[in-house]
Amino acid sequence: MLFPYAFIPDHPIYKLQQWIDELFLNVWCTANPTVEYSIDLLPSDLKELTLEIYNDDRIKTDYFYGPIERVYKLFQGFDQTTKDILSKAYRDNNAIEDLCKGSNGCNPYFYSMLSALNQPLKVEIENYCKSLFKSVIHLKSVQKRIGMIDDHYKEFVTINDKRKCPFCGLNSIIGPNRTVRDAYDHYLPKDIYPFNSINFKNLSPMCHECNSSHKMGKDPITHPHTQARRKAFYPYDTCGSYDISIEINFHHTDISNLTEHDISLILNSPTHQEEVDTWKDIFGIEERYKEKCASKTDGWYWYCQATDEYENAKVRLGGQFTQEAWVQMQISAANSNEYSEYSAENFLKAKYLEACMAQHVFGKESSVHLEET
Fold it and tell me: Is residue 128 within 8 Å of 114, Cβ to Cβ?
């Protein structure tokens, strides 16, 4: 991840997660086998919403009333140890930052673990959690209480105004004034992890290519081959930026005929190397960056642009200076601020031009320096 998002600290849409927190921890996990289920056990806001949905003839699916009661009755049959296990699992799975960083003793809890514990509970919880994001959050009775996800998106992309997908840096993020928007990705996949399907710290707008072609249902915090834990970038880290270096090398000097196989790419970080390795795996970063560099309309264009602009600069500015000096100025300009770096893939263009300079492909027919003006 090239840079983290800023999290909107306060938004009414978070109320739904708060209601589910209260339901799980204060109603289900405290279910007493001697206390018969009653809707009066629910927090007042959730009770009111549950009854409104249940009594709305236009809503054909029982999203709350029946599922809440069935899960309560299952919890009534659990001993305190089992309830404590589930309470910790719920808290851990909603501590998204700790799960990404492997910190504070948080351990991921999977649907497979829930199935081994109690299969009927797994079925109920999975249906319930998935319905919250797929259907419940879009109900009018819910929206009038917490607002619309589209409104959250507009506020989100207004605050996060780079308009570039931080998971690749290549594609744009749709802005607030369009009639469509990019999808929210469940960073910890909703098919693997229960309890956090509407936790907005687990929901990140992501470009279509990153979301639908690369990440899909991949698990960022579990290695796909060994099932071992691994660290991943937390999308809402407050660090501001990551110390990531990109090094590009070409295997020959015929820049006009580069293929992906002629390019080596090294991504390093002195502070987040494990996260970088996860990021490369999840989002196909190496192949995507190599493809850009080998493209006639990207890498080759960058080379031609630098060459043409140099020739024009000689005519306009006068004086004698090397092409490499001119290219170095372009590299510096590409990294001049946080917006220029991600404009037109400048962060990658700069590294491509550095690789060109390392191969000495730019002309040296002019001599020393820009003439001072």
Answer: no
CA 105 to centroid of chain Cα atoms: 23
Alpha-helical segments (H) within the chain: 15-22, 44-54, 65-76, 80-93, 96-101, 111-117, 119-134, 140-146, 149-159, 208, 273-283, 285-294, 299-317, 323-334, 346-358
Question: Two tokens at 18?
Answer: 């708060």
Please give the model's pTM, rounded to 2 decimal places.
0.91
Question: Could you read off the pLDDT of 20-31 as tens digits, one per residue?
Answer: 999 999 999 999
Q: Alpha-carbon distance 126 to 231, whole Å? A: 25
How far is CA 305 from its chain centroid? 33
Cβ within 8 Å of residue 229, ≥6 positions away: 102, 108, 221, 222, 223
Cα–Cα distance, 295 to 260 (Å, whole number): 9
Do 113 and 193 touch, CB atoms closer than 8 A? Answer: no
Per-residue 3-state assignment (H helix, E strand, C coil) for 208-233:
HHHHHHHHCCCCCCECCCCCCECCCC
Placement of tokens 């990658």 in the chain: 348
The structure tokens 């992309």 sit at 157
Question: What is the CA 372 to chain-centroid distance, rounded?
Answer: 46
Q: Kindly report the number of other CB atoms within 10 A of residue 351's CB atom.
A: 22
Task: Report which of residues 133 and 339 the model is more confident about.
Answer: 133
Spell 243-267 as b/e; 16+ CB within 10 A means b. ebebebebeeeebeebebebbebeb
